[in-house]
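Q: Hi! First time doing this. I have a protein sequence and I read that you can turn it into a structure. Is that right? Here it is:
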Amino acid sequence: MKYKLLGRSGLKVSELCLGTMGFGTESGWGADKESSFAIMEAFGNAGGNFLDTANIYKLGTSEKIIGEFVSSRDRDYWVIATKYSLKDNTTNPNASGNNRKNMMRSVEESLKRLNTDFIDVLYLHIWDDLTPVDEILRGLDDLIRQGKVNYAAISDTPAWIVSKANTLAELMGWSQFIALQVEYSLIQRTPERELLPMAKHYGMTLTPWAPLAGGALTGKYLRGDIGRIKPESNRLNENSARITKEVIAIADKLNVYPSHVALQWTRQQGISSIPIVGATKLSQLEENLKMIDLVLSEEDLRRLDEASKINLGFPGEFFREDGVRLNNFGGFYDKIERR
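A: Yes, that's right. Below is the predicted 3D structure, encoded as structure tokens:
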């Protein structure tokens, strides 16, 4: 596996990130400790070093499993990313949210579960629309200065807030967000309206969650294997089915799995992107690891774009006229190719 720099930092992470939301058997599903260990061992043997978890995944069990696994290995090899924000207990009204009190409490609890002295990347998990952004930034910067966190990142937050935050951090000399985690796939392309251009502008690495749309893009839902998904989900509608059929057609042409096509598409969108691949079975990880050498042709990308394209809304569509942007300077028009 190759390594990439995470955002505007010198941190080297593997080109795929292992999602560990399913480590633990709470809620009646997931991988037990033995299976989770086997998955991480295989990921590490393939050169993977980037692990994604959160304080609430499997009620903290995901972090505990990672902590136990890493404690008997080289801690410095692994880049552990975790998150804070969502409620992980009911002991007090500040056991959730982006506020400093919850941030500090959550980090201390995560450090205990992970059995480590530091977290490599700490994500704000989701915007609470309550906490001032300067409170968040100062808290994260304090954790970094204390050595409890190495880098800050952000997830599931409006683009204008992230933009404001990184600008303020730059002005104040605080640590900036180096990665952006959002749902992004051929079935969920709305981040292209604001979030992806913003991330690219600030040099942030995109870490897409659900790049396979919960398995929809593997074709399993077309085969009737809908599992726990709700019938009204947009992953089961006609649009998703049409997109998935195009993915399968290209996969058949290239003699690869549909998941390979869907994952690689997220890595060829003109922005630094490290998709998060979840696994609760070793076979799932082994299948996904085989995609790292795949490169989609311009024709394949065109077909996928045509099948899944969205309306960018205003001002995105205003800037795009028949595939070009028209810039009017000095009374004449220059046609500039849109990428």
